[in-house]
Structures are given as structure tokens and as C-alpha cells.
């Protein structure tokens, strides 16, 4: 019925919505409004995928991820994905293709994560944002399902994209 912002910063807004249920009752529901996230990786000729090993302080956990970041206002999503990959890995991707878009927590946020991939990249040097991960590696795509099963790739958006790439490249 209505929605009002209760907190806002450059990364997100917390809103309170008055939701009318089908039976006529009203429910106050908090939600988080977020900018889109662009994710990118490359799969090379050896069917290895470029990944980052990083720590997430919120969950105090380590895991494998793909390069990702918020889309700046007015920025093309695919261009943002390419920019993030270059900044975080030191590899400039060739042409990127849309892989999938996921909503990782659509009961609480309006976040949409747009995943892209390519099959070529050029190493341009040490990553500008090397602080975002402790290492970057080419990981055999065939290992991905086992890594997911062992909890080595904990982020749902990364898991979805990597399983899709595994299916596309290895069947």
C-alpha cells in the first residue's frame, strides 16, 4: 500500500512497507533496496574458470567467488561486469555474454545479480583491487560441483552461475 525510507546510504536503502495481504490484513515489512550487481568470469580453452579466494567478514568465512560489484548509476551492466573483472583479477575479458540473472534474497531485498561470462581474456597486470581477494586462480570447471558440495563456494549467486557454466561447457 505504501513504502517509506527509514535509512539510506550510497550502498542501500532500508524501507518499511505497508503490505495488504489477500485476506485484508496489513503487515509491516522491512525491505532493502539495492543497486544491481554485475558479476563476470572467463572460461579458458582448458575449461578452467577464473575465480577469487576471499574472506567475507560478515559470515567470517572464506570461499571461492567470481569478480563482482555494484553497477554505477548510468553504467551498462555488461560494462560494469567487465570493469569489475579487470579491477579484481587483472584480466581484461573479451566479449562477455549474459549467463543469468538471479535474485539471491527476494523476500528481503530487490537485489538482482547479473552474471556474465566470456571465453577469452588478456592479462593486463596485477589487479587494481587486489585487496578484495587473497589470490586469483584458474580452477578446472569439472571441480566446481564438488567444491559447491564441500561448501567452498558459499555464495548462492556464484553457485548458480558456476553450475550453469559447468552445464554449458561440460554438459
UniProtKB/TrEMBL annotation:
Its cofactor is Mg(2+). The keyword Transferase does not apply. One of its GO terms (molecular function) is hydrolase activity. Pfam families: NUDIX. Coiled coil: none annotated. It comes from the Bacteria. Keywords: Hydrolase. Gene3D superfamilies: Nucleoside Triphosphate Pyrophosphohydrolase. Residues 33-166 form the Nudix hydrolase domain. PANTHER family: NUDIX HYDROLASE DOMAIN-CONTAINING PROTEIN (PTHR11839:SF18), UDP/ADP-SUGAR PYROPHOSPHATASE (PTHR11839). This is NUDIX hydrolase. It comes from Streptomyces hebeiensis.
